[in-house]
Specification:
By secondary structure, this protein is α+β, with helices and mostly antiparallel strands. It has a three-stranded antiparallel beta sheet with strand order 2-1-3, with no helix packed on it. Strands 4-5-6 form a three-stranded antiparallel beta sheet.
């Protein structure tokens, strides 16, 4: 029993706790709100747009616009070394518009998610292509594609967050 306890202590001591803690904290929490809804108030000439408060009672002069969490799937292909190596990027982007984004954009409240896809798809494709073009040196064959995956994820998330869109990008290179 004492030897089993001793081996357990040795294996427990061999765990790199600093690495385990950073693995937990590296995940990005975008702060989505499944119940997010905007209220458009129009009473005569008076108009106002605001987020729906917790204790909200709808009146005849209110129009509610839900802001759902959208799932966006993108796939990009890149051929390297004269078509000897093909790399596919599968992106799943979850995003949700915020009140600040709605106020500063010209998007229609009912079509805001389509508007975001239309506006930001070329920029996201540029980020992916720029990252993948760095693979032409061949060093990724030894190290793998994890660093490039993480770079794509962070760049896309920062792009959308800079525009007041809550986002989380999940990626896979193969």
């Amino acid at each position: 029993m004492n030897k089993a306890l001793q081996s357990l202590e040795i294996s427990y001591a061999s765990i790199d706790w600093a690495r385990a803690d950073t693995a937990k904290t590296n995940h990005w929490d975008p702060g989505f709100d499944a119940e997010r809804c905007l209220v458009y108030l129009k009473l005569g000439p008076f108009q106002r747009l605001f987020e729906k408060p917790n204790n909200f009672t709808k009146r005849f002069y209110h129009t509610l616009y839900p802001l759902p969490i959208e799932h966006w799937e993108l796939t990009e292909q890149l051929s390297l070394y004269d078509d000897f190596c093909n790399i596919a990027v599968d992106l799943t982007i979850r995003y949700q518009a915020t009140l600040n984004y709605i106020k500063k954009s010209e998007a229609d409240l009912q079509e805001v998610n389509k508007y975001i896809k239309t506006c930001y798809e070329p920029l996201i494709q540029d980020i992916v292509n720029e990252t993948l073009l760095k693979l032409t040196d061949g060093a990724w064959v030894r190290t793998g594609l994890t660093a490039q995956e993480h770079e794509i994820e962070i760049a896309i998330t920062e792009l959308l967050l800079g525009q007041e869109i809550q986002a989380d990008a999940l990626r896979h290179l193969s």
